[in-house]
User: Which sequence fits this backbone?
C-alpha cells in the first residue's frame, strides 16, 4: 500500500476525533450552564429561607409583645397589631415599619428610638406616648381619628396653609418661644394662580411638625413672582444683532406664628444671573436664535434652611 493510500484511510478516523472533541466541549459547556442555574437557585433559596426565618421571628416578637408588653428593640416590620392593647408597652428602639397599628391602644407606650415608617396609625391612641420627636409621626399614616401624644385628635398641617394667604391662626397650635426649636410646617407657592402647598423639603427634618397641634411656625415660601428683566445686553456678531436678556428671580420667605397668625419675619431674596461681558463667543445656532435668556438661580432648600435657623436656634 502506498503512503498516499494510507493517509486516505486515516482521514475518516481523524474526522471522528474532531466530532468527539466538539461533543466534549458541548458537554462541558452544558455542565457550566447547569452549575450556573443551580448556583442561582441556591442563592434564591437562601434568600427565601432568610425571609421565612425573619417572618417567624417577627411573629414570635408579636406574641411576646402581646403577652408581656415588652419588646424593646424588636423587629415588628409589617406585623399586624391592629386594635392591640399596648398601653404602657415598651417598644423603645423597635422597628415598626409598615406595621398595622390601626386602632391600637398605645397610651403611655415607650416609642423612643422606634421607627414607624409607613406604619398604619389610623385610629390609634398615642396619648402620653413617648417619642424622640413628634415629627417621627410624619412618616406614618395618621388621620383625624388618630389621637396624638398630647391627647388631641390629629389635625393635618395642610390646614395651616391659610396662614400664608389670610393670616388665619390655629389657636390650639404650639406656642412659639423663640430660641427653642419648634415644629414648623412649610408651604410653597410656585405660580401666582396656585395655592400654597405643604412641602416637606423646605423644612429640615429635625424641625418638622407632625400635625397642626405640634406646629409653632408656618413657613411660607413664595416663588410665584414673575422674573424681572434687569438688563438687555445688545451685540452685533457677523453683522447680525444678538441680545442677552438678564432676569432677576425673587423668592419671598415669611414666618408666621401658627397660634396667633402674627408675622415673625419676612424677607425678599433676589438672585441675579451672570453679568454680560463686553465680548461674547456664540455658536451659529445661537446667533440664528437671536437672543439668550438668563435667569437667576431660584432659591434652594439649603438656603431656605439657613434663613429659618436664625429664628429657631
Assistant:
Amino acid at each position: 500500500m502506498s503512503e498516499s493510500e494510507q493517509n486516505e484511510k486515516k482521514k475518516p478516523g481523524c474526522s471522528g476525533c474532531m466530532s468527539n472533541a466538539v461533543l466534549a466541549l458541548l458537554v462541558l459547556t452544558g455542565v457550566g450552564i447547569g452549575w450556573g442555574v443551580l448556583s442561582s437557585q441556591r442563592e434564591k433559596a437562601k434568600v427565601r429561607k432568610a425571609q421565612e426565618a425573619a417572618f417567624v421571628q417577627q411573629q414570635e416578637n408579636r406574641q411576646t409583645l402581646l403577652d408581656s408588653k415588652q419588646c424593646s428593640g424588636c423587629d415588628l416590620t409589617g406585623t399586624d397589631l391592629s386594635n392591640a392593647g399596648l398601653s404602657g408597652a415598651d417598644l423603645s428602639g423597635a422597628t415598626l415599619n409598615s406595621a398595622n397599628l390601626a386602632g391600637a391602644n398605645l397610651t403611655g407606650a415607650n416609642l423612643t428610638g422606634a421607627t414607624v415608617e409607613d406604619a398604619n396609625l389610623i385610629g390609634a391612641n398615642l396619648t402620653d406616648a413617648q417619642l424622640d420627636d413628634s415629627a417621627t409621626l410624619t412618616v406614618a399614616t395618621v388621620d383625624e381619628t388618630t389621637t396624638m401624644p398630647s391627647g388631641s385628635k390629629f389635625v393635618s398641617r395642610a390646614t395651616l396653609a391659610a396662614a400664608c394667604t389670610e393670616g388665619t391662626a390655629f389657636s390650639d397650635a404650639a406656642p412659639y418661644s423663640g430660641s427653642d426649636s419648634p415644629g414648623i410646617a412649610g408651604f410653597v407657592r410656585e405660580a401666582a394662580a396656585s395655592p400654597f402647598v405643604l412641602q416637606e423639603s423646605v423644612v429640615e427634618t429635625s424641625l418638622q411638625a407632625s400635625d397642626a397641634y405640634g406646629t409653632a411656625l408656618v413657613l411660607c415660601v413664595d416663588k410665584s413672582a414673575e422674573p424681572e428683566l434687569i438688563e438687555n445686553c445688545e451685540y452685533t456678531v457677523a453683522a447680525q444683532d444678538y441680545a442677552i436678556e438678564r432676569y432677576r428671580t425673587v423668592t419671598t420667605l415669611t414666618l408666621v406664628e401658627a397660634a396667633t397668625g402674627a408675622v415673625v419675619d419676612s424677607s425678599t431674596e433676589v438672585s441675579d444671573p451672570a453679568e454680560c461681558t463686553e465680548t461674547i463667543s456664540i455658536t451659529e445656532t445661537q446667533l440664528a436664535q437671536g437672543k439668550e435668556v438668563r435667569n437667576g438661580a431660584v432659591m434652594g432648600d439649603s438656603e431656605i434652611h439657613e434663613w429659618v435657623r436664625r429664628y429657631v436656634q
Q: What stands out?
A: Residues 191 and 224 are 4 Å apart (CA to CA). Helices lie at 3-68, 162-165, 284-289, 301-309.
